[in-house]
Amino acid sequence: MLASLTTHWKDLVVTFFMSMLPLVELRGGILFAAAKGIPFPLAAATSFFANILPLPFILLFLRRFFRFLEHFGQTRRLVNWLENKARKKVSKMRTAILLGLFLFVAIPLPGTGVWTGALIAVVFDLQIKKAFPVIAAGALCALCVMSVMSYLIPGFFGFVVSS
User: Fold this and answer.
1) Which of 17, 21, 26, 56 is nearest to 44 (CA)?
2) Which residue range is the domain that position 47 belongs to?
3) Rounded to two decimals, what is the model's pTM?
4) Number of domains in the chain
């Protein structure tokens, strides 16, 4: 494992930062890692931890940040747009919000990751101690799905990328 770490350290840094980005998240990070031939355990751990690293900060400070931005004319519209978009996505999840939040983050589709899940948790005023484990579990499930799509299926068909 140490040999893989020293061999792939540059690609791991890119994987780490890709997995932290709001739109790319671990879905793009694990795909990048697989394409670069990074061994699965190293890629999975790097993508997952980088993806959930900003989560507590998002949950803690996003509401305050939105309230700060509402004091400015131009950003008030952006804040309202983001909050309205999140409210539309969650209007169907009112009865089972935690299960809905988990499923929302777990399904690896564009716009359904940790960042959007945190936005939903903030809009619903969920407590951090409830929202964090649900969103992290959803990210772990999305990691499993993306790992199958980027490591197992290509390997089954003989499309293994090696470095």
Assistant:
1) 26
2) 8-52+144-156
3) 0.80
4) 2
